[in-house]
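Example record

The entry below shows one chain as it appears in the dataset: sequence first, then structure tokens.
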Amino acid sequence: MTRHEINQMDGEVPKLRPQQSDLLENLRHNFDAEVHLPADIPREFLSAALLFAIDKKVDFGLFHQADRIIIAYFGGDEIYLPSRWSDKRWHIGVEDREPFFDPAG
């Protein structure tokens, strides 16, 4: 059995080795669509969106970059994922299409 430990200094983000980074990029490119959310999106909204997608059996990958959170998915499932609507706010679902889920209500 192998034991893995992550030691993180205050404010220090561990860096991936080049082969790990390539592996993640290859995994990300297996999906055919992405939603790019700002990194400062409320965690409550992100949690609700991911739980809704899981409940709807959406296959997705979650990736994090310094300035954004990326949900990679297969086309056709966008009605179950976050999108930015004409009111400039993030909602779960595509504007004017069902199903729409409001995590606040």
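Notes for this example: The beta strands are 33-38, 60-65, 68-73, 82-84, 90-92. The two ends are 46 Å apart (CA to CA).
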